[in-house]
Specification:
By secondary structure, the protein is α+β, with helices and mostly antiparallel strands. The chain has one domain: START domain (Alpha-D-Glucose-1,6-Bisphosphate, Chain A, domain 4, 2-Layer Sandwich), CATH 3.30.530.20. It contains 2 helices and 7 strands, in the order βαββββββα. The protein has a 7-stranded antiparallel sheet, with helices on one face. Strand 6 and strand 7 form a beta hairpin.
Length: 158
């Protein structure tokens, strides 16, 4: 099994409580995911995540071909960390750690994603052909969406 890794870091000009309030709300996932994914939560969920929470999503990468995704929040440490893991879905393994850290003038959001493909050789070929690029584009979209919502950090003057 090949394990893949994506690491992203972003700084936002907000305090940690504002960040936690946003990122810990399941309803906000759709706001930072490309619209064509058409992310919909299918089960009743609380306003805020908690350890052990399971969410059932339906989304699509290709129009007309929706798929289900079941996520469990396996670690939740307010206000600076949570982990979601796929229980059922398109990947063989999915572990996504979200870290929020206070920094001067705002917060730093860190995403650490480790994942593996299903479907043996076909999954590996799909990863090389488009899955990696697709996941990277989702994180690129997320960066832009968060900047639209919260603004950007001023660059330090040297």
């Amino acid at each position: 099994m090949n394990l893949y890794h994506i690491f992203r870091r972003q700084r936002l000009p907000i305090d940690i409580d504002t960040a936690w309030d946003f990122f810990s709300s399941p309803e906000n996932l759709a706001k930072i995911t490309p619209e064509y994914f058409d992310v919909r939560i299918k089960n009743e969920v609380p306003a805020k995540i908690y350890q052990g929470l399971i969410i059932v999503y339906v989304m699509q990468v290709v129009p007309g071909f929706p798929f289900s995704w079941v996520t469990e929040f396996t670690h939740v440490q307010k206000p600076d960390l949570f982990v979601d893991e796929q229980r059922f879905g398109p990947f063989k393994f999915w572990h996504h750690k979200h870290k929020l850290e206070e920094i001067k003038g705002g917060i730093e959001v860190v995403d650490i994603l480790d994942y593996a493909m299903s479907y043996f050789v076909i999954g590996q070929l799909a990863h090389g052909a488009f899955v990696r690029k697709l996941l990277e584009s989702v994180f690129d979209y997320r960066r832009e969406a968060l900047e639209r919502i919260f603004g950007t950090m001023a660059r330090p003057v040297l």
